[in-house]
Amino acid sequence: MRLSLGCRVGYAEEIGQQKLESRGLMFSKLSAFPNQKWFQVTLLTVAGMLAFIAISWAVQALFAGDANAGRPGLLSGYVLPLLFIAPLLALLGVKLHENALLKQKYAQELAHDSLTSCLNGTLFSAAIDVFATGTGRRKGALLMVDIDHLKRINEHIGYSAGNQAISVIAGIIRSTVRSGDLVGRIGGDEFGVYLPGASKENAEKVAERIRHAVSEVLFEPSGSNWPLTVSVGAVLFETEATADDLLVAAEHQIQIAKEKGRNRIESTRLSDGRWPSRPSLH
User: Fold this and answer.
1) Which of helix, strand or coil describes residue 193?
2) How far apart are alpha carbons 191 and 195 in whole angstroms?
3) Inter-helix orientation angle 243-259/8-63, to 10°
4) Distance in angstroms (rounded) separating the CA atoms of residues 231 and 35
């Protein structure tokens, strides 16, 4: 279902609520993940230390017959337990290293879409808010790239082919943008491209390169050629803008591109909440 101007406020509130819920779930998982490993390793270390000290004291008391049998010596009571603990401390270091690697991997999985390796929608929106509402340069552009007729591919060839198309287009988008630009998968058939500091000319060139490259790619699932095209909605801004404002404006431009036949670019400039339409770029 496409977005209309009339549901701008409701859409923004819904995105905001989903964003907060997703962020809370993500960070709660990340914070809880290492605690289990810490507890297990610490418990193992303390239990081993106490067990060995108790055993050493019991053995000394069993074989020593004098009145001081209950008092372990320095070697048997403390040195040997420390030697026993040393491997456990090494194990602790190994476990902590493994835990850090797993935490990093888990964070990467949460941050990126598994099919396309692009940022997921939640973090993409959060990153835009940091760039576009923070101090410093706020000029830039947002491109929303919508895959044309992906539903037809899914219905006629299968969802596996549809996923291949999504992956191919994601690769084209990532290879087109600069290293400092952001690419996120913001829907089943939609990508967002954030171009910080981009001028109107820069944004138009990037949008056209994406559109042209997708239309020229050879996509042959099941051995038959299937044309791929995208519609692009571009939003230019020179003042502070939130992710919600940019996404809603870009979605509106996508709707215009769809109505005009798809495989085209529509752009607007976001200024004081007004979106004056500009001629299509293709």
Assistant:
1) strand
2) 13
3) 130
4) 46
pLDDT in tens, 28-87: 444 444 455 556 666 666 676 667 667 666 766 666 655 455 455 555 555 666 666 667
Strand order in the sheet with 119-120: 119-120, 182-185, 190-196, 140-147, 230-237, 265-270
- Give the span between the Cα atoms of 174 and 172, in whole angstroms: 6
Contact between residue 75 and residue 60 where contact means Cβ atoms under 8 Å apart: no
Q: Is 111 exposed, middle or buried (0-12, 13-18, 19+ CB in 10 A)?
A: middle
- Where along the chain do the CATH 3.30.70.270 domains lie? 119-270
Answering whether pTM is above 0.70, one says no
> Each residue of 126-163: pLDDT tens digit?
888 888 766 555 689 999 999 999 999 999 999 999 99
Question: Six-digit token pair at 57?
Answer: 């004291």
Superfamily for the 119-270 domain: Reverse transcriptase/Diguanylate cyclase domain (3.30.70.270)
Reading the block at residue 86, the tokens are 């040393």
Per-residue tokens: 208:
């056209």
